[in-house]
Amino acid sequence: MINRVVLVGRLVRDVELRKTQSNMSVSSFTIAVDNRQKGSDGNKTTSFIPCTAWNQSADYLSKYAHKGSLVGIDGRLNQRSYEKRDGTKANVVEVVAESVTLLDSKGSSNGNMPKMDEPVDDSPKDDVVDEKNDDVSTTSDVTDDDLPF
C-alpha cells in the first residue's frame, strides 16, 4: 500500500507547539493549498489541510515559521477518532509530516531563519538503544562546522 502526501502551502496561523508526557515536541498547524480547479463562480478555491509535525521538525517550525510562511510538507495521511469532552465521537484526517521545508525566500523572512538545504526528517521513532549496555544513545559527534547554517 502507498500512503504518501506532498504539499506546498502557506501557514494559516502560527504553529502551536506542545510537549508529550515523554517530552517529545509535537506541533499542529494548518496550511492553505490552492486547488487546480476553479469553483463554479470562476474563482480559485483553497483547501485548508491540518498537519502535525514531531520532534525537531516541530521545534524548527515553531521557532522559524509564522503565519503566511510558505512550507513544503512530505508525509503521510493519518485518520484517527476520539471522544470529545461532550461525549460525541469525532474523526480527524490529517497529514503527519515526515519532512518539512521552509520555502520562503531569504528576502521575505525576518532574517532570523537559518538556511536549511535539506528537509528535516523527524517522524516519531523509538529511542535508539545501545545493544552493548542498553543505554539510550544521547551523544553526537556533530560540530558547528557540520551544521548547514
Quantity of strands, as a count = 7
Order of helices and strands: EEEEHEEE
Q: List segments where confidence is low: pLDDT < 50 over at least 5 consecutive residues.
A: 113-118, 126-140
CATH topology: OB fold (Dihydrolipoamide Acetyltransferase, E2P)
Q: Estimate the mean pLDDT confidence.
A: 79
CATH class: Mainly Beta
CATH architecture: Beta Barrel
Question: How would you describe the overall organization of this protein?
Answer:
This protein is mainly β. It has one domain: Nucleic acid-binding proteins (OB fold (Dihydrolipoamide Acetyltransferase, E2P)), CATH 2.40.50. It is 7% helix and 44% strand. It contains 1 helix and 7 strands; from the N terminus they run E-E-E-E-H-E-E-E. It has one helix at residues 55-64, and strands at 5-11, 16-19, 25-38, 44-54, 70-83, 89-102, 120-121. A 5-stranded mixed barrel has the order 1-3-4-6-5. The longest helix is centred in the middle third of the chain and has 10 residues, at 55-64. The radius of gyration is 18 Å and the shape is globular.
